[in-house]
Amino acid sequence: METVIALLKDELAAVESQFKKNLASDVKLVSQVGDYVLSSGGKRIRPMLLLLSARLCGYQGDKHIELAGVVEFIHTATLLHDDVVDSANLRRGNRSANSVWGNQASVLVGDFLFAKSFSVMVGSESLRILKILSDTTTQLAEGEILQLINTCDLEVDEPRYLQVVRDKTAILIAAACQVAGVLAGVSDEQELALREFGLEIGTAFQLMDDALDYVADEEDFGKEKGHDLFEGKMTLPLIHAYANSTAAEQEEISRIIDAEELIPEDLDYICNLIEDKDGIAYTYKRAKARIEQAKQHLDIFPDGEARQALFTLADYVVSRNK
Predict the structure, then answer these.
(1) Residue 151 falls within a domain, yes or no?
(2) How many independent structural domains does the chain possess?
(3) Which residue of 60, 120, 193, 294 is most buried, as measured by CB atoms within 10 A?
(4) What is the 3-state secondary structure (H, E, C) of 244-311?
């Protein structure tokens, strides 16, 4: 991962400068909240994927810098809104913005980031890019609503879960890769390959997030262990464990999911059951398979520094612990 960051050092610095420029506002709270979230340890996976994809396609302009900032702004806006919906207190190891400034400020600054993103998108002078990113933003909202509908529903199976993952996470990562190809004017086949690469990477990323929620230390992961369970989110480790549990175990899972509060003993029970049923191992396996599929989509591009860096970034997704 360090080699990728070193390769993109100058471009990432330019993206960070773009953040500051686009956060400028006469309303001081906008820049305060926006800067707090954007500087709180984000991995910049989406900007890096866009920058590397542009390099892979031989893009020679500078609009990829602005668009890399756009995808991170959209992502950050969803985080601000998610933390309000989830009543989260931690984000990336720090107090969440809503716990510092309140829910109203978080929602409204998230709205500002969405609006600013569209303003910057227009600067790309590409109706196709504007359509891709506007459609993506719509789908992100649909994914969050679908996840809300699935809350505490033990009938959620892997396909239903993967649809949520695609809509609320993978679709923006796919768009980040795709718009780089559009900027560079690649063939339809290459553009589709970049999009499919991003979809697989994005799916694997969320699978790892959902596994880490049950096993990572709070200090490493940056949010409370078992927060997904507390919110009643049906993620793959629990879905797999539930499907392979006895009737008595399923009844206990149902009781815990429906409880008004999650006590430590119940969290331990679920974590131990997921471990016993290989829920974490199964989720890791599925994530790694997605990464291998992602790499195959890039066979259409010649080998080189950019493609190898994309492979390194892909491998990082399944090796991280936070």
Answers:
(1) yes
(2) 1
(3) 294
(4) CCCHHHHHHHHHHHHCCCCCHHHHHHHHHHHHHCCHHHHHHHHHHHHHHHHHHHHHHCCCCHHHHHHH
Q: Across the chain, where does the E strand assignment appear?
A: 90-91, 94-95
Segment 64-121, tens digit of pLDDT: 999 999 999 999 888 888 888 777 776 656 777 777 778 888 888 888 888 889 888 8
Looking at the domain assignment, is residue 317 inside a domain? no
Domain residues for 75?
2-312
User: Does 280 score more than 90 pLDDT?
Assistant: yes
The CATH number of residue 194's host domain is 1.10.600.10
Please report whether residue 303 resides in a domain: yes
User: CA-based Rg of the chain, rounded to a whole angstrom?
Assistant: 20
Distance in angstroms (rounded) separating the CA atoms of residues 221 and 320: 10
15, 35, 39, 120 from 29: Cα distances, Å: 22, 10, 15, 20
| Domain assignment present for 11 | yes
How crowded is residue 142: how many other Cβ atoms within 10 Å of its Cβ? 15
Q: pTM above 0.85?
A: yes
3-state secondary structure of 43: coil
Instruction: Give the pLDDT score at 123.
Output: 78
What pLDDT is stored for residue 25 in this prediction?
82
In DSSP terms, which residues pair with 95 in a beta bridge? 90
According to DSSP, residue 302 is labeled: P
Which residue type sits at 139?
Answer: Q
